[in-house]
Specification:
Layout lengths: L2 E7 L3 H5 L13 H12 L4 E5 H4 L3 H10 L2 E8 L6 H4 L1 H14 L5 E5 H5 L1 H7 L4 E3 L4 H8 L7 H4 L5 E5 L2 E4 L11 H4 L30 E4 L2 E2 L20 E2 L2 H15 L3 E4 L8 H14 L4 E6 L6 H10 L1 E9 L3 H5 L8 H13 L3 E8 L6 H14 L3 E6 L7 H9 L27 H17 L1 H11 L1 H10 L21
Helix pairs in contact: 4-6, 12-13, 13-14, 20-21
């Protein structure tokens, strides 16, 4: 008997990260593929997962695998560890869909994920997939697997969240409802870890600064879905009906941690929730359970400057949270106001970072250059803030119009040039093309970002802090990393004096 469904998680880190893919970038498990596989198995369907990036497979090798172990259907699940990664994985997804249909036109292929949910009609036009699932995907996949006539429009019309072709037109059935919070543990009962190549995954380099040569084993998981905020540059809520946060109960989540620790020996863990440090019941409840078990985890998670409360920090540190990632984005409240991220003030940023560090937790600061209201002075101010904070790690991004975000809709309305290929929505790709601002051309935003990154990681004050906190081995690791300069097609070097030497 054939399997009911093969789930393919597409990806090609070499295209997305250039030279950084070799030993610096993380290799992360496909969380949504694992969640959907678990949900389908819970409904009685037989499932397998092919993780293209982790297994190092070409599209042709995926086709061969599907032929050798046949299934009734293939689902190409296009997600990533951050919301924008769905779009950058679409190039690989297109190649996989095309190869599957060329080998067996009769076997149905459905594509789903953040990007397909944001642009379902376009995805149906641009891929060889037979169907697009808009939304979280579980109801749509179960509807397709339970349908005995996938060529019958009447039967297809009953399947929620489904796009398909009919007489040369793209047809949508009706929206699929979000899974209610009370049903999460039943409908999406954890990740099907046993279907994933667990030995292949590798943590971020900075995540393991206290043990830089021990980045495996590694895992990432969700403890909640969605986000209640509406930052205009973010596309997190594209698969969902509205901005909202739904949490698995801490008692359910801790069982996932137990499986990772006891069955797979995992200690390095990322909580991939878009906003973890928010709900006190959820955060403190999970911390208490982690403290009780004392597995010695090295965890990192996302927070916001305006959500970090004093009562969280002691519990987080004791529970093994060694890193918190803060979306600082810009020093300028005016610039942050333009992208609906102005609930905290400039004067709040430094004290919050110092408070987190004072609790024994490292800080990863996220900064964005090129937001719509930016000029050179505001970008310089943001870089100066990053240098002042001297976070243990910092990510510098260019503002990108990711499908599913308000910024994408704004860019389309304005007629601004966007990347020609989906993988070039990656921050690290060769043909990455960010948005221009009212004052700074896109190429100069790239030049500013890349120079800022290099100056930050070669700054003597930063390197001295790293050596003091993490040792000589990490210092040498960073010196090797900064020898890599990304190749950029559209880069324009920053004007003289735009970035001051630190």
């Amino acid at each position: 008997m054939p399997l009911d469904i093969t789930i393919v998680a597409p990806g090609n880190n070499k295209v997305i990260y250039q030279e950084l893919a070799g030993s610096y970038a993380a290799i992360e498990p496909p969380i949504w593929a694992g969640l959907l596989a678990s949900g389908l198995r819970n409904s009685g369907y037989s499932v397998r997962i092919i993780d293209q990036e982790a297994e190092g497979k070409t599209s042709e090798e995926i086709v061969r695998d599907v032929s050798e172990e046949p299934s009734r259907m293939v689902a190409v699940v296009v997600y990533g560890q951050q919301p924008s990664a769905s779009t950058q994985n679409m190039t690989a997804a297109q190649e996989v869909c095309r190869a599957l249909k060329e080998e067996n036109a009769a076997r149905p292929v459905v594509i789903l994920g953040g990007h397909p949910s944001a642009l379902p009609k376009r995805t149906l036009r641009e891929t060889a997939a037979d169907f697009v699932a808009q939304g979280e995907g579980l109801d749509t996949l179960e509807g397709l697997l339970g349908c005995d006539r996938l060529d019958d429009p009447v039967k297809l019309s009953r399947i929620p969240g489904l796009w398909y072709r009919s007489n040369g037109e793209e047809v949508f059935t009706h929206p699929a409802p979000m899974i209610p919070q009370r049903d999460l543990s039943r409908r999406l009962p954890g990740i099907a870890w046993d279907l994933l190549p667990m030995k292949a995954y590798r943590a971020h380099n900075w995540h393991c600064f206290t043990h830089i040569m021990e980045r495996r084993p590694y895992a990432s998981l969700y403890t909640s879905l969605g986000c209640p905020f509406t930052c205009s540059f973010c596309c997190i809520n594209a698969p969902f009906e509205k901005p909202a946060l739904r949490c698995w109960e801490p008692e359910f989540v801790i069982r996932e941690f137990e499986v990772l620790a006891e069955r797979y020996g995992v200690r390095n863990i990322k909580i991939a929730d878009e906003m973890f440090v928010l709900n006190p019941h959820h955060v403190l409840g999970l911390c208490e359970l982690l403290i009780e078990r004392d597995y010695g985890f090295n965890i990192w998670a996302y927070a916001r400057v305006d959500t970090v409360q004093d009562r969280f920090l002691e519990k987080l540190e004791k529970a093994g949270f060694h890193w918190l990632c803060l979306g600082i984005e810009s020093k300028s409240q005016h610039v942050r106001s333009g992208v609906e991220k102005d609930r905290f003030h400039e004067e709040d940023i430094v004290p919050i970072v110092r408070k987190i560090q004072g609790a024994g937790i490292n800080v990863l600061g996220n900064f964005i250059f090129g937001l719509p209201d930016e000029d050179y002075d505001s970008m310089q101010a943001t870089f100066d803030l990053a240098v002042e904070l001297n976070c243990e790690w910092a990510n510098f991004y260019c503002a990108m119009a990711y499908p599913g975000s308000a910024l994408y809709r704004y860019a389309v309305e304005k007629g601004w040039e966007l990347p020609k290929h989906w993988h070039d929505f990656s921050q690290h790709s060769y043909e990455m093309l960010p948005l221009p601002t009212e004052h700074v051309p896109a190429g100069e935003v790239i030049g500013f970002r890349d120079e800022a990154w290099h100056l930050y990681y070669t700054n003597p004050s930063y390197l001295a802090m790293v050596e003091r906190k993490f040792g000589q081995e990490v210092l040498e690791h960073l010196k090797e990393l900064t020898k890599i300069r990304l190749k950029r097609k559209y880069l324009i070097p920053p004007k003289k004096g735009v970035i001051l030497t630190v």
